[in-house]
Design a protein that fits this description.
The complex is a heterodimer. By secondary structure, chain A is mainly alpha-helical. Helix content of chain A is 75%, strand content 0%. In chain A, helix 3 runs antiparallel to helix 4, helix 3 crosses helix 6 and helix 5 runs antiparallel to helix 6. Chain A is globular and about 70 Å long. Chain B is elongated and about 130 Å long. The chains are: A mainly alpha, B alpha+beta. The interface between A and B is large, with 56 and 44 residues.
């Protein structure tokens, strides 16, 4: 994937060139989804005391899928790093975790805002989905704290990759928490949920695709920054030598 | 005379109907204010049961009732069931939550919790009929006490949550734009730095120090 200095191969460079296209597609899909969520998606009055705030679900769900996808990229990249020790995968794992945390922050703000309308309180500690997702996010905040605490780049990359592999256990745990433990989290499209109807389903798919495209665009953008940082760092070393 | 006798009979009948004699050791409620204590008995086995009852139940949250079964030295080992019943006597709306409990022989006390899970009671109702009940192991009623509670549920937002929807949208896009702005500025700075370095490698002075180490 990288040449000796850690720069991306031409294929990766070409993929990174897609960033603007992805960003454009996300910038088209997400507002379209938001507009359709407001005007076209059915109002789920049954079981919800705040049917307007319920529409937060569409981008909340998209952000959730994007964050899970991002933590999965971190998991796979960490695995690849431990297997081949190529620095690019360490960079990819770190950047995917960073962008995933942005989506996690979207989740952790939109969820409590919805909760304050629906439940009357923003957070409920007895809800397993909320708590496991918060722990998952904190584990990946810890991932960055861990990276900052280790000076040796090789050891840092190895330790962070191992940490990410272990921390990833929380992703399926968070997803399955709805079925394993007591949860007040609404089951909209999960088994046993009331569903969102045909129009709601289309809006949901638009938001999920939009969020995934946004995630991919931000990740490529972040990777571009990281690889340029590396290039500048190498050039500085060469100049000072 | 006949009229007097008839009046006396009618009065006696009305008294029986209006004020029936309580059964021995029948359940009762003590205390004042928002929290009362219900007392239930199984006199035949020397078991006294107490449970704290809130006058208000918040339907959006879990409501837990701790039954304490105090035993005397005449108590024989036996099984019971303690129950909380909402709207007893109305088969259409009655709901009950119960928990089994086994008490060993001899003095001491045993606690058992009956929980009404969050989001189970939905709706708002003042003075809803409410019962705490003690049953034997076979499910036959041993004793009960009737009470009334106020069922509260969260207030729905007047605009259906429009304010929250707007706030969540602002946070969502705010985070996207903040992060994109940060990436854009970082990239611009790095490109400037790379350009300076390129020039310096051609003979000019190198620009700035590098503080980025991949963390």
């Amino acid at each position: 994937m990288t040449n000796g200095a850690g720069y991306p191969s031409p294929i990766i460079a070409r993929i990174m060139g897609l960033r603007l296209w992805l960003l454009g597609a996300a910038a088209g899909l997400l507002p379209l989804g938001a507009w359709l969520a407001l005007t076209w998606a059915p109002t789920l009055a049954e079981g919800f005391t705040a049917p307007v705030a319920q529409r937060i679900f569409y981008f909340h769900f998209g952000a959730a899928i994007a964050s899970y996808a991002g933590f999965t990229v971190t998991f796979v990249a960490s695995l690849m790093f431990l297997k081949g020790r190529k620095p690019f995968f360490d960079t990819l794992a770190r950047d995917a975790a960073g962008v995933s945390l942005i989506f996690a922050a979207m989740m952790l703000t939109s969820g409590p805002i919805w909760g304050s309308a629906e439940w009357g309180v923003p957070w409920r500690w007895e809800d397993s989905r909320l708590v496991t997702y918060l722990v998952l996010s904190l584990v990946f905040v810890g991932y960055f704290a861990l990276r900052r605490s280790i000076d040796d780049p090789t050891q840092r990359a190895r330790t962070a990759a191992t940490y990410a592999l272990v921390g990833y256990v929380l992703v399926p745990m968070s997803y399955l928490s709805l079925y394993l433990w007591q949860s007040l989290h609404p089951r909209v499209i999960s088994p046993g949920g009331q569903g969102v109807g045909g129009a709601g389903g289309i809006v949901m798919i638009i938001e999920v695709f939009g969020s995934l495209l946004l995630f991919a665009a931000l990740l490529l953008w972040r990777l571009e920054v990281s690889l340029l940082e590396e290039k500048v760092s190498n050039a500085q070393r060469m100049v000072s030598a | 005379m006949n009229t007097q006798r008839r009046f006396a009979s009618a009065f006696a009948l009305a008294s029986i109907l209006l004020f029936p004699a309580p059964p021995a050791e029948a359940g009762f409620v003590t205390g004042v204010g928002a929290q009362r204590t219900a007392h239930l008995f199984d006199a035949s086995n020397g078991v006294n049961v107490t449970v704290l009852l809130n006058e208000t139940l918040q339907g959006a949250f879990e409501n837990k009732f701790i039954f304490t079964l105090e035993r005397t030295n005449t108590t024989a080992a036996s099984s019971y069931k303690v129950a909380i019943i909402l709207s007893p006597g109305d088969p259409d709306t009655a709901s009950s939550w119960s928990a089994p409990v086994s008490v060993p022989a001899g003095t001491s006390s045993t606690n058992v919790a009956v929980t009404i899970p969050a989001e189970t009671i939905q709706g708002r109702l003042r003075n809803a009929p409410f019962r705490a009940q003690l049953e034997d192991g076979a499910g036959a009623r041993v004793d009960f006490v009737d009470f009334s509670v106020d069922l509260l549920y969260r207030d729905p937002p007047p605009d259906g949550g429009m304010l929250q929807l707007a706030a969540a949208t602002v946070f969502f896009w705010g985070l996207v734009f903040l992060y994109a702005g940060y990436l854009h500025l970082s990239l611009r700075k790095l490109r400037q730095k790379a350009e300076l370095l390129e020039r310096s490698s051609e003979g000019s002075t190198p620009g700035g120090s590098n503080d980025r180490d991949g963390r």
